[in-house]
């Protein structure tokens, strides 16, 4: 098969990019290892920045997002008894939208046929070849036979564990990694949220987050040692821990219910550079990971996709080949700012095992400063709502 752009992976980054390219008349094919149901079964991001919402709007695929998404004009930082509200609407004039990654992916999947976006699911042994040349290709096996897709560009949207990043030779690559000594244990349940806005809590027993997917579906997290296993956390133990860490006010409004999903995700900060080498571009988790504090991962994938779509449509439709060459630097400038924000909010809101009284005093002082300073709140709000693209 021959096409202009071969996209590896069919998560949110890949499908957004595929639809944006198709809308501009650029040919593309998407190659994914899993089934659609498997992808929709992964419970992940819940908070969308303006860039993500605006890409869905530009594609005309935002009808359900507008109808069912919950616009949030603020969120809260909790420290012991105190709740610090960050009024993002007042401080920035913008808001975020609570709408699950699962639903966004479902909307993008549903529009495949109507928009002529070809996605091959259940492709095994996906491999990238000749990415340093102008004629890269991707091979895979499906239903027992070998397939080959020839393209002018390959875009790796295959997440942290996919093969694309590994196709960039070590001699040109740089990796930046920070691992955190805990993971987030998440629970999804069909119960109303305990608060109409998100609460990120730093309690002496550890971090907790109260989030939601809708008025009737809640998403909560606590941080746990990396050695903990999900089986050690029955629902009752997790609800008890959430009630303690979120504090008496939130606990009083918390409805408990059976978990629909429960899993532990490790926290890491990771950046791979460059994000383009030869005819291969990387987007989303394939190139970088942020710790989830601050809800940046999916949104960062969306801003990469915005830059990649501009670069590739520039190349194919507007005779602007230089934008592809600039893609890595353009994308990385925004990536690093999101990495910084996610890292600093993680540092502020978690109890690190190696921390002593001094580090804790720094957290208290910083939270005090944020509580009393509009400037400090504005800095947090403009990062949370998303820096300009
Ligand atoms: P992925 O969603 O990982 O998609 C990659 C795709 O590539 C997958 O479908 C995978 O099957 C496929 N693939 C992998 N290997 C191969 C292969 N060999 N061949 C073919 N295909 C392959 N982000 C936010 O913005 N806000 C949040 O609130 C938030 N909360 C999160 C909570 C949790 C618990 C987790 C784990 C993440 C959270 N994130 C959040 C991060 C966010 O989910 C990711 O950043 C996002 O999924 C990145 O999208 P992606 O398309 O780049 O990668
Ligand atoms: C959710 C996840 C996050 O990482 C975050 O910062 C906020 C919300 C969520 O899954 O709802």
TrEMBL record:
InterPro entries: FAD-bd, FAD/NAD-bd_sf, HB_mOase, RIFMO-like
Domain FAD-binding: 2-342
Chain ranges passing through the membrane: none
Molecular-function annotations in GO: 4-hydroxybenzoate 3-monooxygenase activity; FAD binding
Keywords assigned by UniProt, alphabetized: FAD, Flavoprotein, Monooxygenase, Oxidoreductase
Assigned EC number: 1.14.13.2
SUPFAM superfamilies from the UniProt entry: FAD-linked reductases, C-terminal domain, FAD/NAD(P)-binding domain
GO biological process: benzoate catabolic process
Top EC class for this record: oxidoreductase
Name assigned to this protein: 4-hydroxybenzoate 3-monooxygenase
Annotated gene: pobA
């Amino acid at each position: 098969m021959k096409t202009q752009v071969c996209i590896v992976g069919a998560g949110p980054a890949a499908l957004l990019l595929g639809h944006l390219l198709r809308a501009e008349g650029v040919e593309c094919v998407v190659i994914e290892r899993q089934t659609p149901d498997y992808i929709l079964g992964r419970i992940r991001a819940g908070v969308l920045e303006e860039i993500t919402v605006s890409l869905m709007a530009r594609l005309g695929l935002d009808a359900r997002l507008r109808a069912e998404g919950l616009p949030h004009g603020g969120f809260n930082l909790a420290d012991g008894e105190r709740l610090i509200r960050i009024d993002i609407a007042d401080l920035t004039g913008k808001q975020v939208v609570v709408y699950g990654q699962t639903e966004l992916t479902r909307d993008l999947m549903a529009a495949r046929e109507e928009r002529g976006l070809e996605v091959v699911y259940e492709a095994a042994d996906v491999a990238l070849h000749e990415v340093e040349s102008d004629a890269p290709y991707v091979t895979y096996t499906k239903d027992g036979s070998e397939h080959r897709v020839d393209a002018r560009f390959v875009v790796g949207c295959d997440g942290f564990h996919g093969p694309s990043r590994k196709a960039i030779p070590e001699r040109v690559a740089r990796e930046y990694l920070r691992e955190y000594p805990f993971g987030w244990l998440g629970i999804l349940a069909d119960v109303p949220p305990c608060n109409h806005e998100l609460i990120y809590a730093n309690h002496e027993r550890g971090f907790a987050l109260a989030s939601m997917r809708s008025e009737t579906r809640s998403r909560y997290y606590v941080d746990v040692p990396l050695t903990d296993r999900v089986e050690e956390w029955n629902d009752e133990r997790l609800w008890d821990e959430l009630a303690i860490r979120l504090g008496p006010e939130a606990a009083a409004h918390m409805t408990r219910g059976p978990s629909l999903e429960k899993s532990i995700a490790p926290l890491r900060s990771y950046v791979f550079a460059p994000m383009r080498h030869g005819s291969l571009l990387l987007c989303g988790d394939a190139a970088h990971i942020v710790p989830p504090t601050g809800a940046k991962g999916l949104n960062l994938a969306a801003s990469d996709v915005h830059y990649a779509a501009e670069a590739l449509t520039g190349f194919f439709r507007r005779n602007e080949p230089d934008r592809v060459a600039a893609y890595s630097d353009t994308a990385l400038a925004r990536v690093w700012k999101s990495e910084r924000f996610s890292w600093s909010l993680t540092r502020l809101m978690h109890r690190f095992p190696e921390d002593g009284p001094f580090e804790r005093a720094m957290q208290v002082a910083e939270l005090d400063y944020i509580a009393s300073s509009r400037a400090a709140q504005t800095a947090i709000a403009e990062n949370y709502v998303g820096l300009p693209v």
